[in-house]
Write a structure and sequence with these properties.
It contains nine helices and 26 strands. The chain is α/β, with parallel strands linked by helices and about 450 residues long. The protein folds into four domains: about 170 residues, Molybdenum Cofactor Biosythetic Enzyme, Chain A, CATH 3.40.980.10; about 45 residues, Molybdopterin biosynthesis moea protein, domain 2 (Alpha-Beta Complex), CATH 3.90.105; about 80 residues, Molybdopterin biosynthesis moea protein, domain 3 (Molybdopterin biosynthesis moeA protein, domain 3, Beta Complex), CATH 2.170.190.11; about 100 residues, MoeA, C-terminal, domain IV (Beta-clip). The strands form seven sheets. It has a six-stranded mixed β-sheet with strand order 7-4-6-5-9-8, with no helix packed on it. The chain has a six-stranded mixed β-sheet with strand order 16-13-17-21-20-18, with helices on both faces. Strands 22-24-23-25-26 form a five-stranded mixed barrel. It binds ligand LQZAQKY5 and molybdate ion. Molybdate ion binds next to loops.
Length: about 450
């Protein structure tokens, strides 16, 4: 047991069960309730970054955006050809061309020769429409003979002319706050004349791996290579956060306290390891001295020892040390909190439908995350269908059926069961295992941003 400074002790609440070490995790909080407790008292922050467009991809707008100017801002030719007065071409046909005088054939971007009756001025795609013209005849419909052109097809008024504001009208409303910027948005913003945008700051996360057995490389007997901090930091970055991956902190109360306190300037603190009920599992008790543990023990597998707490206004996620348990819980708790704080939607990860190759055991009342590899059966004649890369609406592999094979039924220390898997099958609390042959959804959680 840790000896705690009594001046720091705060109301422990239900979650910091003083008998936890002897009782273990008999009463586990349901996953949804645990998330509710974590998100209950926090709100999305309102801090704003003012960024150039080049830095703004994937960021969330904090301001409404309207177009300061129209695009195009001038009437422009939509085709290479000749600017004309449309009525001069009426009646033109293959055998009865209309003859017009060439007033200018230099194809300037801003032609300065006006188009008079029965005249034509050469334009290129994007040229400003010259004064007097109201249509463009495509070059394919014309034969130039010296200072004249023969027009073989009539054009109507405005034909092949892009009007002012065809793309975006001046003052048009384009985006609302909360919109996550995509590359096409950056292009549109630039075209209407914005060069900077106000976006929400990304929430910051301190990721603190704990455990005196952890080393960064070359483990000796009893030593383990630190992986959780690296993985969880990068997950946090994918979910819209900015992670600071801290050095490993040893199982020493003073060192743990100092490390956690240092990161209270962050929006979220994540620790890994020391979450359980062993004599060196100190983190939940330390959180309880600095703030309060809201939940300790959740009805999920792997990783039921996870704890959730709050210190001042900073949520703290205490991930279990076993790497698979750390990842499963990061997806369950860190992902939604970062999305929420960063004003991002928290969409379900993409899924594939598959048939289970074998039974997956699970305990009723516990949500179980069974890592699976998917194997597809493809049409006999081709492994990879090149046509599918040409017509990308079709499947690249001619998939006939997909089978989900559990990589490992248990073993939350087995990191390869996640890293060499394609996703996981979630066994709901209402089921006691899933049967071989069942149709399941494989959640490709790592592909969700
Ligand atoms: N008596 C009980 N013991 C355990 C229970 C239980 O209910 N009763 N639950 C087990 C489960 S489930 C898990 S998950 C672990 C979680 O415990 P901790 O959070 O205290 O994890 P540690 O003991 O610190 O570490 C477990 C394991 O993972 C390795 N580890 C830790 N941190 C890292 C890291 N950053 N990178 C890579 N590997 C790490 C550590 O060396 C251990 O091997 O508790 C069970 N015990
Ligand atoms: O629930 Mo634990 O993470 O399976 O060993």
């Amino acid at each position: 047991m840790v000896v705690m400074d009594s001046t720091d002790a705060t109301d422990a609440g239900d979650a910091s069960d003083p008998d936890r070490r002897s009782s273990g995790f008999k009463n586990r909080t349901k996953l949804a309730e645990a998330r509710r407790q974590l998100l209950g008292d926090i709100s999305p922050h309102e801090r704003i970054d003012n960024l150039s467009l080049g830095q703004a991809d994937s960021r969330v707008l904090a301001e409404p955006i309207t177009a300061p100017r129209a695009v195009p801002g001038y009437e422009r030719a939509a085709m290479d050809g000749w600017a004309v007065q449309a009525h001069d071409t009426f009646g033109a046909g293959d055998r009865s061309p209309k003859v017009l005088q060439v007033a200018d054939d230099t194809a300037e971007s801003v032609p300065d020769t006006p188009v008079g009756p029965n005249e034509a001025v050469r334009v290129h795609t994007g040229s400003a429409l010259p004064d007097g013209a109201n249509a463009v005849v495509m070059i394919e419909q014309v034969t130039q003979v010296g200072t004249e052109i023969e027009v073989f097809d009539a054009v109507t008024e405005r034909e092949n002319v892009a009007p002012i504001g065809e793309d975006v009208a001046e003052s048009q409303s384009l985006y609302n706050p909360g919109h996550q910027l995509r590359p096409s948005d950056l292009g549109l913003l630039k075209s209407v004349g914005h060069d900077r945008v106000q976006v929400y700051e990304r929430p910051t996360v301190g990721v603190i791996p704990t455990g005196e057995e952890l080393v960064q490389s070359n483990p000796g007997p009893g030593e383990v290579v630190e992986t959780n901090g690296l993985t969880v930091s990068h997950l946090a970055n994918r979910w819209g956060g900015i992670a600071t991956y801290r050095n490993v902190v040893t199982d020493d109360p003073a060192a743990l306290r100092a490390a956690i306190q240092r990161d209270l300037t962050k929006d979220v603190v994540v620790t890994t390891g020391g979450s359980s009920v062993g004599s060196r599992d100190l983190v939940p008790e330390i959180i309880d001295t600095l703030g309060s543990v809201l939940v300790h023990g959740v009805a999920l597998k792997p990783g039921h020892p996870v704890a959730l707490g709050i210190i001042e206004d900073t949520p703290v996620i205490i991930l279990p040390g076993y790497p698979v348990a750390a990842i499963v819980n990061a997806v369950q708790f860190l992902r939604p909190i970062l999305k929420y704080m960063g004003h991002l939607p928290c969409n379900s990860p993409p899924t594939t439908t598959a048939q289970l190759s074998q039974k997956i055991p699970s305990e009723p009342g516990v949500r179980t995350f069974a890592r699976v590899r998917t194997e597809t059966t493809t049409a006999a004649d081709s492994d990879i269908d090149t046509d599918a890369y040409i017509d990308t609406n079709t499947d690249t592999k001619n998939v006939i059926s997909t089978i989900a094979k559990p990589t490992r039924a248990s073993g939350s220390g087995v990191l390869s069961s996640v890293a060499l898997a394609d996703g996981w099958v979630i066994v709901p609390e209402s089921r006691e295992g899933l049967d071989a042959g069942e149709t399941v959804s494989v959640e490709q959680w790592e592909w969700s941003t």
